[in-house]
Amino acid sequence: MSQKQMSLPAKLINGGVAGIVGVTCVFPIDLAKTRLQNQRSGQQVYRSMLDCLIKTVRSEGYFGMYRGAAVNLTLVTPEKAIKLAANDFFRHRLTKDGKGMNVFKEMLAGCGAGTCQVIITTPMEMLKIQLQDAGRLAAQQSVKAPIVTGAKLASTSAVPRRAYNVGPVPLNGKVSASQIAQELLRTQGVRGLYRGLGATVLRDVPFSVVYFPLFANINKLGKPSEDESAPFYHSFLAGCIAGSTAAVAVNPCDVIKTRLQSLNRGAHEESYSGIVDCARKVLRKEGPSAFLKGAGCRALVMAPLFGIVQVVYFVGVGEHILSYSPYNVISS
Questions:
Q1: Nearest-10 crossing angle of helices 49-60, 295-315
Q2: CA 104 → CA 5, 94, 213, distances in Å?
Q3: Percent with pLDDT over 70 in the chain
Q4: DSSP-derived 3-state class of residue 164
């Protein structure tokens, strides 16, 4: 595909399509990531990502792996639109001097894009996490139920295995994202939906700062010449490498964000007053390795997600759709 300046509407369509397809493909892994990150030491319900997915299917059915997906599918298009538009805007402003983009300017543009996207990302993640983590809390309750009378003798391996074969214990009835949003707005106002905003900024800004320059420079290595674009497979691999690297790099911030945005907690699980308090308590009680919980899942989510983005851009879904637009026909 020849190198060309893609229009902003085409980019927004491509970003939205890539987001919807990507979320659908990798959401079960994202659910496992959330549940693994919310586990405390001594209260592990899941041993690994695969163990989490197997137990989720057993206790909640196949669609249990897609708890909270509707929120992401609804909001991922405006999120990608804001991120892409902001990145384009900052790159344009930073190249007005005619000197082109260097790594520092690419990092600044990524920083600006990451800061803007949290407008949508924070409430989206807030609602998604409540729905994703409900199954873990239910499983934790179902494991603890037979332990009450058995005290310490109930720590045999037979109890957890049996617990996952039954349905989840309902937590105040089955709720939807809209119900959670309405309750938060009623009790806390808009501020309730933006709980964990600081931690989201702390995660998404460094992610964009790492991802955009890393992808641009890896992708540049595959260009046959300055006027040609890199082969499809090279761009695909560049997206996978940059996405997974950035995801692992900011995983400690993602753990903190997940903990802060979880409204419901299991028995004996601590609450946190802020980013510093959360980081201090996690470090003291669970050790440094706790900040890497779910890192493998995040890498597995981000690699195909950004690979899918490259597929959508290479195919040119946005340009194809716009070519059939009545406005495009009139203008031509």
A1: 80
A2: 22, 10, 8
A3: 85
A4: coil
Residue type, 288: P
Query: Quick one: 230 exposed, middle or buried, by C-beta within 10 A (0-12, 13-18, 19+)?
Result: buried
Rounded mean pLDDT, 241-257: 94
Mean pLDDT of the chain: 81
Cβ atoms 31, 67 nearer than 8 A: yes
How many angstroms separate the CA atoms of 31 and 73, rounded? 14
Q: 3-state class of 68 per DSSP?
A: coil
User: Which amino acid does the sequence have at 253?
Assistant: C
Phi, psi of 225 (to 5 degrees): -150, 170
Tens-digit pLDDT profile for residues 95-114: 877 777 888 888 999 899 89
State how far the Cα of 124 lies from the Cα of 129, in Å rounded to an integer: 9
Q: Give the three-state DSSP class for 147.
A: helix
Instruction: Decide if pLDDT at 27 tops 90.
Output: yes
Q: Which residues contact 11 (CB under 8 A, 6 or more apart)?
A: 84, 85, 88, 318
Question: In residues, how long is the chain?
Answer: 332
The Cα-based distances of 331 to 5, 9, 10, 325 in angstroms read 18, 15, 16, 10
Rg (CA), the chain: 22
Average pLDDT over residues 296-320: 83
More confident residue, 182 or 156: 182
Query: What is the average pLDDT across 318-322?
Result: 80
Residue labelled with tokens 């924070």:
122
